[in-house]
Amino acid sequence: MVTRCRQLAVVALALLALAASACEVSPLVAPTGSTITLTAPTNALSANESIEISAQVLEPSGFPPHSGTLVTFTTTLGVVAPAIAETDSSGRALARFQSGGSNGTAVITATSGGAVTAATGALRIAVGSASVGAVRVGANPASVSALGGSTTITASVLDINGNVLRQVPVSFTTSAGTLSTQLATTDANGIAQTILNTAQQATVTASVGAQGGSSSGTGGTGGTGGTGGTGTGGTTTPPTPAPSPTSGQASGTVTITVNAQATLVITPPTTAPSAGIPSAYTFAVTVPATNGVPVRSLRVSWGDGSSQDLGAVSGNAVVQHTYNDTGTFTITGTLTDAAGNVQTVSTAVSVITVASPTINITPSVPASCTGASACVVTFLLQVTPPTSVGIVDVSVAFGTPGFVTPVNQGLGGLTGSATLSATYQAHAGPQTIAVTVRDTVGRTTQGFTTINIP
Asked: What is the pLDDT of residue 146?
């Protein structure tokens, strides 16, 4: 009896085990013939960013499978989490794709049981530099001095959808000068920068990935892309987008011009200037027609301790200056243009002593003067001052008082000739005639002649 009971117990346990095995639930997967369609809000993504992806599962009948059907995601780049997701009542399973800081094209697929991918195929998302669509390049300032200068080069990087592209490496090259960095990473606004130092015209190229679609600029203002991505300087043309999300090819250029400086020529008077007399000096300023920068000021240092600001000279400026002393002086012109470029030009001038007025006295004395009769003597007086010198006063002393009338005569500012006469006593003997000339330079010059009264 005991043995029989034990046999029945074993049979019962076996039946219970079989029932338990029959009650286990297999994972839900899509039936054969089902389709999966993958979608994402964008096909381009910056590095270290993520997006939600959706897998829509439909059975052959066109209806969604039972809720909780499992969908497995795979990717060739980055990470999809969760790797296995369940569908909702509409047959949609959601996951999140994280680029993981990589650059390239992520090919994402999804599977579930016998389900096959829809005709649209795998989901492709261009990540980082692989998603570049255009590079807009500008320079600020757009030109530099011929003596050398620096300008900030800005590259605004856009993806294939026209949005700013963050955290992608940008390579800079230049045809002249030097760059502060040849590789920079775009910031939160999709902008990468470098500084160019040059004294020559230069074309700077900014590239992301291989050389592909490009945009170019010639200095000025421009380069605004995506959300908050503004490039300073550089008028850019509409970008040529990369041919596909997987190309990752775009570049842009900007040309930095060189300011052509104005020239200055200083011309002293043809004849050596004399001390104390104003002379004319010519300052010729020429602004180049190509890339020329207008003159802001011309300051002249005369070399004698004085200086003069001539302002914004263009063309010829003729300026009068008086040197009070003799010697050699260096005239220096300092030219400053509107771009802040400064240059100096110098020339030497020798200042000589001013010539004195010329005094000629030609007397006409009678051959004889007899008895107590008076002797009338005439004089032709010529006073010739040097160029730029005036005569202030001329006075004549005709001889010894008591023997001549008048003794003195004032002629004012005589320049040229005058005929004078004086009456002498007979037998007055030798008489000295003195002519005193005072000129505008402040000098006194005298001329003399002696006659004999018979």
From this structure: 79
**What are the residue ranges spanned by the domains of the chain?**
35-121, 130-259, 263-351, 358-453
Supply φ then ψ for residue 21, to 5 degrees: -65, -40
* Residues 156 and 249 sit within 8 Å (Cβ to Cβ): no
Question: What residues have CB less than 8 Å from 15, skipping those under 6 apart?
Answer: none
CA angle, 82 as apex, 80 and 86 as ends, to 5°? 125
Least confident of 75-89, 201-215, 252-266, 272-286: 201-215
Residue type, 16: L
Q: What integer pLDDT is reported at residue 6 of this predicted model?
A: 52
Fold of domain 130-259: Immunoglobulin-like (2.60.40)
Helix (H) or strand (E) holding 13: helix 2-23
Chain-centroid distance, C-alpha 351: 43
208 in Cβ contact with 193 (< 8 Å): no
Q: Which CATH architecture has domain 358-453?
A: Sandwich (2.60)
Amino acid at 233: G
The C-alpha atoms of residue 25 and residue 29 are separated, in whole angstroms, by 12
Cβ atoms of residues 154 and 194 within 8 Å = no
Query: Same CATH fold, 130-259 and 35-121?
Result: yes
CATH top class, domain 263-351 = mainly beta
CA atoms of 380 and 94, how far apart (whole Å): 125
Closest CA to 140 of 126, 125, 124, 152: 152
Query: At 390, phi and psi to the nearest 5?
Result: -105, 160
Q: Is the pLDDT of residue 61 over 70?
A: yes
